[in-house]
Design goal:
single chain, mainly alpha, 434 Repressor (Amino-terminal Domain), two-stranded antiparallel ribbon, 2 strands
């Protein structure tokens, strides 16, 4: 489990093993062992790694769910629908629509097309930040 979380956090931080080694002062060979799953670092090294990758040590030890690393390719990035935003926030579609229309939603905006018709734009990046998902 540690090696998967380490690899995910490194991808999220856009950091390779050599860069992580330099940022932590941990030897490249030891970082390689951690990435392969051959060894699991002690708490002191976990703290150094977490600091370099800008996450909390609990992320690696599963003591506290601090950071959810989600990897998405640029081809997968799309506008989030009102329905999806409502489902993910636990709010109604009407609430999300009204928030976007009034300009109080920090993750998107609405443009009035004509009459009662609106076009909604929800940024995946801003929405995930709003929901506490760090990418």
């Amino acid at each position: 489990m540690f090696k998967k979380k380490l690899k995910d956090a490194m991808i999220e931080a856009d950091m390779n093993q050599i860069q992580l080694s330099k940022a932590t002062g941990i030897s490249p060979s030891l970082i390689s062992y951690y990435c392969s799953g051959a060894y699991i670092p002690n708490n002191g090294y976990i703290k150094r790694i977490a600091n370099a990758l800008k996450c909390k040590p609990g992320y690696f030890t599963e003591i506290i769910p601090v950071k959810k690393v989600v990897t998405v390719s640029k081809a997968e990035i799309k506008n989030i629908s009102i329905t999806e935003a409502a489902e993910r926030t636990g709010k109604s579609k009407e609430f999300i629509s009204a928030s976007l229309q009034s300009g109080i939603a920090p993750f998107g905006f609405a443009v009035k097309i004509s009459g009662d018709k609106w076009s909604y734009h929800i940024s995946p990046k801003k929405f995930n930040e709003y929901m506490g998902v760090i990418r």
